[in-house]
Amino acid sequence: MGKQNSNRREFLKRSAAVAAATATGLAGFPAIVRGQSGPIKIGVLHPVSGALAYSGGLSRLGAQIAIDEINAAGGIKSLGGAKIRTVLGDAQSKPDVGVSEVEKMNAEGVSAIVGAYASAICLATTQAAAKYNIPHVVDVGVADQIVERGLKNVFRFAPGYRTVSQQAMNYLHIMNTLAGKPAKTVMIIHEESLFGTGTANLLSQQLPGMGYQIVDVVKHANPTRDFNNIVLRMKALNPDIVIPANYYNEYALLVRTMKQQNVQPKAIFSVLGGGASSFKFVKEFPDVANGIIDCNHWYNPKDKRALALRRKVEAMKGQFYTYEVFLNYQAVHLLADGIERAKSRDRAAIIEALSNSTWDKHFMPYGPTKFVNGQNQGAQPLMMQVLKGDIKVVLPNTYAQAEPVFPWKA
Length: 410
What we know:
Elements: H1 2-27, H2 31-34, E1 40-46, H3 53-72, E2 84-90, H4 95-108, E3 112-115, H5 119-130, E4 136-138, E5 154-156, H6 161-178, E6 185-191, H7 194-206, E7 213-220, H8 228-237, E8 241-245, H9 248-260, E9 267-271, H10 279-284, H11 286-289, E10 293-296, H12 304-314, H13 323-342, H14 347-355, E11 371-372, E12 375-376, E13 382-387, E14 390-395
Parallel strand pairs: 1-2, 1-3, 3-4, 4-5, 6-7, 6-8, 8-9, 9-10
Antiparallel strand pairs: 10-13, 11-12, 13-14
């Protein structure tokens, strides 16, 4: 019996020594190595409070739907079916808060980040993520500065405002020419941040060369709760075309004020932000929505997957199928494809996989992804118009559901 106890004590002693040595060895490995099992942490970062909360909430919704679908379908197959765990962040509609959220996500050990909606916030969060080599998939942010700083961790799936504004002006010129060039003067009204100011500057450079006279460019604060003075000036200048570049709340208030003051230009032609890209706007303000044109992010209306997601979102109480929803949905699936091909949670490996992406399982009018300096080269906007209470793609012809009506007659 004594010999058995002695053997047992020796066995326990050796086991304790092995366990201690193992623990010491693991402590010397980087956290990313020790975390190769379990869920994959993905940061989902948006402004879900503050002035941009509505759009930020929709962005988060689109990302979460995609994550739920991926997990339900078996997770990341190349990592043994690992599930994605969402690490939520609220930028509070402020770039500096977005940076703080990136710091928290890095400490949490995220493998990548999706977000952060607004251009000014994306500019800050992508830079902050670069410090830790965190891959950052940009969902919406259109400022081209986001992808022009040489940051290897940044990937924007959708087009930037240079591409969108150039395409918008081409579409406008086609419509105006076919109609006999009834529109000659333009007034631009834009919000004050990087998105609105950058878009307005590009349009101001492009329009004169196409034969249009810009009668005024008006910048307004974001938020703004009274457009009466701006619309009074519009009424005095009587432009043929009004081009707004605003976020949702200001856009809705601007065009409603135009209606109240009986201002009816030949066209309200929005660029990146308008009634013709928001089913919420069409439903809530049908009296002012009809006829509005918008060149913006949009899905392929002939793709059954896009229509299925629309039905899913609209079945949720109080939700609308907006570009915030489907761009984040697609951004998460793009990231998941990168992780699948990287076969790793490692940030550098995911960046490498995204850099060589040829992902074509989306429902956007883009073709397979190809990133050059962080920008998806095939990304393009579509032109929509509100016709008979619905949003229809009117250009280009490949995706068109209806003919554009230009000039608009109320």
